Amino acid sequence: MFGAAPERDHDFETMSGIPVEPVYGPDDHEHPGQYPYTRGPYASMYRSKLWTMRMFAGFGTAIDTNRRFKDILANGGDGLSTAFDLPSLMGCDSDHPMSVGEVGRCGVAVDTQADMEDLFAGIDLEHTTTSMTINAPAAPIFAMFIAAAEKAGARRGAIGGTLQNDILKEYQAQKEYVFPPRPSLRLVRDTMTFCAAEMPRWHPISVSGYHIREAGSTAAQELAFTLGNGFAYVEEGIRAGLAVDDFAPRLSFFFNAHVDFFEEIAKYRAARRIWARWMRDRYGAVRERSLQLRFHTQTAGVSLTAQQPEVNIVRTAIEALAGVIGGTQSLHTNSMDETLALPTQKAARIALRTQQVIAYETRVANVADPLGGSWYVEELTDEMERRAEAIFATILDMGDGSMLDGAVKGVEDGWYQGEIADAAYELERKLNDGRHVVVGVNRFLEGNEEPQPETLYIDDEVERMQIKRLDAVRQDRDLSAVARALDTIRADAADPEANLMPALMGASQAMATLGEMMDAMGEVFGRWDETARI
Amino acid sequence: MDDPTIDDGRLDQDRGTRGRVLVAKLGLDGHDRGVKVVARILRDAGFEVIYTGLRQTPHTVVAAAVDEDVDAIGLSMLSGAHLALVPPSSSCWPNGRCTYPSWSAGSSPSGISAASVRRGCRGTRTGSVGE
User: Residue B111: its chain A contacts at CB < 8 A?
Assistant: First the structure.
């Protein structure tokens, strides 16, 4: 079977005992693990290894989240994914005036390396892969993570995981930017070159369509903007002097799984095919790993409703199944109560159990790309590819032949932002006039009046405790060492050839705060704000 | 989303529109899908809409509302920081309390919604959230 990896110890048969082959289709047709990988990056897919059940978690203080992490691992989750709070995502310390009311609310508060040490205390980082959803301050947060991991005895080269670090989609969709696009892309370059040299098991960028879709794009726009951003990072790496095959194998992707089952599956299939073709034909990649698109999936938060929240379990299950049939490498399933608050432990457990039902009960993981050859799915896959190519042509046009320059120009002109807002508005209109049905929102409303479930409540006490913790760290550090470390950051930021990672790690070890590091860079880079448009 | 209707005698008929509405994003949260969709739908319905853009504070929102002489205010935040941000927005008014119709929307658990209303907000609406 095309050099397939060894299979799991498992009976690959239907419930009534019919043996199941690893893949079906004519011998002279494309198979999984074969260029252009439409049917999957690997020949054996889930028969050798199931997807990683990676549940996104983070709330309160580092100690609170560390407890949740250990609970996830004890319940059969096999990777960690860190949600940071808004101040951390924006590079503000917990005692910044804009942080009021936000500390520990949407994720975990991390101000200094001391918090990072608490966050991963007692977790073996050489054997548990960790994903960190952080973008504008990705480089200093990564520096804190590495410094904390090394202090706990992990070897840098042995740590596996993913930094989201996809700043382009922040300007386009999620809007958690701090610096202007060019210096932000330089920070992405610095993490990419640092990982290529020192951290072979780390994915420095998770090129993310998830947020683009949540902000309102269509599936085809999610596909095209995301892959377009991926090509932009490839061009950034090539401009920095890296050989494409030295860093492309470590680029990973992150897609949304919305509720239109077949369209989502077509989107994943088209993504793999487009990436392989462009990487080989346009960027000259040769290594198989450079051509194989691998991705994480999260079910669509935006598809969930506050009305009758238990119904969200059903939506999430359908979306998760699309991700699995589409061949995802890892998966996060949302909890039923996430329109209301961060999930309770019970809701998060049901979400993980949903993945386990798909993995262990349904037997869908017995065969790769079960919908390959379906006339409908094959045509949708082709159409996704055609629509994406048309969007790439527009981006290339904006960038005078460069996807990188086109992405920056599109951000500066508000082009992506406008395209996404238009699509969101169109869908809302369809919802309003009943052409787009959401159960419990515009049809089948009986039951909406029932009381909402218990939700996780983040007490204001978290903010006070975190600020106290930050004060204690500030009192207990060598101020002249901090000042020297921040001067080094300013000097390296001003030198476009320098890599900022060593200076950021030095500042982390001196217990400089995230806000101090961001401010030091901001003095050189300036700050970014978009023009508000309706 | 329901077709927005604001039935309030304060609306100024002389301007030739159904009224002026300020929509604002308070705090650090950058998720702007909801606020932009609401802004466009209000505009379709004949309102004049002013959008503040991202990362506003209670003070900047109140200043904009006074400057623009609006008839109503909509606040959007997806982070659940309603209790920390909505009451100050209300108390930043020159007379200490907002007498304008104002609504807040976003991920707001019912307990918080009720408290926001008690502290100066006319209504709340819960939307969907992504990570």
Answer: 457
